[in-house]
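Two proteins follow. First one:
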Amino acid sequence: MNLITRGFHGRRGGDPDRIPPGQYQTHDFPVLTVGPTPRVDTDTWTLTITTETGTRHTWTWRQLLDLPQENPHTDIHCVTRWTKLDTDWTGVSLDTLLHDVETTADYALAHSHGGYTTNLPLQDLTDGQAWIAHTFDGRPLTPEHGGPARLLVPHLYFWKSAKWISGLTLHHEDEPGFWEQAGYHDYGDPWREQRYRGD
């Protein structure tokens, strides 16, 4: 089975200063998923950050909601070439979650319910760049869009914003995730069109 698609096509349109090369603006929110959509009950949902030494930090759904909440307003860019401008989210900054986590790791591997993984440099999850998002456009995030919670890393292609997030493991070495092993770019900067390995 070919897991890589060169994407949908449409007119670029919109604000060229906000739409990366090779992208077009959509006003919809396309749903792209490989495999069945997990249905995760918030009564049993947890988020675990595991350090390179094996130390685990875990939050329940209630504990996540009790943390300081932020409301990022941002553009998002999918590797299949759509860009959605001015999206509104609510969630917890990774800065908040990592505040008391002692680590010297350089990389994180995000894990999702359903087995999906994706890798990111840890520096791309800090300094106000990433969130665990549970609300989109004022409503709870639907399962089709990664609810009850997903990783939100809007400065990278959207496959890095792992749906149905269940945890992060921190590593000294980079460890490719699901799509990266299938041929997608290891980093995924939309402004440099880092879609596929070798871009």
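Second one, unrelated to the first:
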Amino acid sequence: MKYQKPWKSFEEQLRLLKVRGMNIGEPNQARSYLERIGYYRLSAYWYPFRTFQLEMNKQNNKLVLKAQDDFYKNTHFLDAVNLYLFDKSLRLSLTDALERIEIALRVDMAYLLGTKDAFAYRDKTLFHPTFANKKFRGKPAFEAWQEKYSGLLKRSKEDFVKHFHTRYPGEDLPIWIAIEIWDFGSMSQLFSMMQTKDQAQIAQKYGVQDFSVFASWLRSLNYLRNIVAHHSRLWNRNIIDQPKLPNLGQIEWCDNFIGKQNLIAKPFLLIAIVRHLILGICPNTHWHIRIEQMLESFPELKSDKTCSIKDMGAPENWQEWWTQKTPA
């Protein structure tokens, strides 16, 4: 299919929304939001207010719900804007928390691997042979990781890297320096190749008994970090890289999600994982309190189509355990 939708001015965009049943409100204000945020980005936030209709899928002859152009009655332009602003605040708060998690885990990994060798990250024999040899894009995972690290090192503009190479030309960075140029994805990937006892040692520090669960959490948090770093919609997104959960009873709050795929596929679980790790890193933090207050201030919408934090995958009793000081 060839793309044929024409360019539209801001005035034409507003007229189109009005024809489809949206209450534009004050036109100059609405145009201002379009100029600053953009029609396409905002369209992700008014998508839930579009009507849906059962239609036959011609490829498999099955009925599917398909979004229509029209909006539910009483849908206001500001409904979408307020959802966007809520989502923006949520992403900014997660950026803060993910930075703390990433830095703490860098210390954990560098400290543990550094006890084996200052250049442990270069030595395949110090990693789990099965995990390190697992194919990743056609190459053993450890080799693929080394190529990624070399790219990060080459692109680095950090003064400490230049200083090290000036003083020690041709030498590898020791792990406690090298880890500072890894991104979250690189850290998560190397963690997944570590020996099981090493993964378990770090996981247990954060109250997670199953190292494979913890490794999946890091992988999912890297996915979350990419969403917030690229300013993408989060609040009701369907999560692609879904985390594993521990066995029933191992981590009390996780029991609320076990066996509930509709909740596992939504972002609230990832936010709860962030809460768990932040409480492990900073027991006196108020980050989770600020998030609770933010969730409780979910915007009031005028549309006949209701939206709430349930669309984020929040379980019914989330407030009963959210503000506990320990990540139980």
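SUMMARY FIELD: The chain has a mean pLDDT of 94. The two ends are 52 Å apart (CA to CA).
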